[in-house]
């Protein structure tokens, strides 16, 4: 419903990339509201499937090496390989592409460690975490533009800073006042054995259902054995003697079938056995269906009780908060202290850059300002308000303006493109400088290919509005519109 409403109010062409991004965000928010604990368990199981594999390519002599990693690990790996490729000495005679250089760097680092002169590099990841996620809620987060669960970001920040954040498993209470002094809320066990546990089910019910599940497994194994043995195969068609049918069914003065030594293995006997077998199978199916219905009803009651208890917990109240201010109001003192400690630990250079606070429109999710705690306090003290940074004198944007535009766009703004905006450049002036200012309303993020295409492809028009909406018109007159991705 939310996706259809979004499409209805756009009144413009929606590219597959825009639609896919919106679908991912809607699903992530839905999972955060309804299936957060199941998503955490799925993530824990997926972590155990990490690995590296190789498969042949379509071209003989080539192979594809794939690695299943967490999103931050994969993003850091690709960023580090890209940085190594960028650090190679420039040689006009070197015809390798950037991707080929990355592949060669990977081989050098893995197969010839210590034998190369590759300089050390730093991998930089952009992590976007809502206030609610840092306070223990399950709002979806982003790592380099990829939507990820909140628990993954909390684990990443804990590993980077050595400071544990409040998580749903560490709720201190489930009372409505948010002071953490109430009864302990339900905890989540991520162990493999806990996947079959139903909260709210008594031990007797669990034992009975386990016994029924065992009987069902035995019955199904017997059915599989009989199927494999051919016991359920169809009987061979009867060999009719004449058009009147088999002798047993032929017209006769007797009203009963033939008697004698052939009755036990005749057609009537086979029909009786088939009816008996069908009745037994039907009875067994009805019993199994009844057990399944009872199990489903019990699971639904347990899930409802679990969901009710979780919504009353600290993490549940933070997740249900409509905005950051409501999440802060619903957070416990422990969560406040944990968040303040995180900001204090990272403000002094523990990360590549100190954390920034993204101020967004509560309705559209559009970026309004990118700030930090000191600037936020100054704005509140002097009532100056927040907004985009001012223009920069000269062609190159200043650090603050550059950071704001990259946080606003994050990915290439050309319709249909999902590439990341390179960190070292590719911010384009919509109105060429110096006729156009170096300001947020005149800068757009592109990937390298579409940045070159904007200047070299004849007949294409790019128009940027004050709110960052980009309209691209093709030489044939078709138009496509992209907006900065919402938070």
TrEMBL record:
GO terms for molecular function: endonuclease activity. It comes from the Bacteria. The keyword Cell membrane does not apply. Residues 164-194, 234-264 are annotated as: Disordered. Residues 400-452 form the HNH nuclease domain. It holds the Pfam family DUF222. The keyword Hydrolase applies. Keywords: Endonuclease, Hydrolase, Nuclease. This is HNH endonuclease.
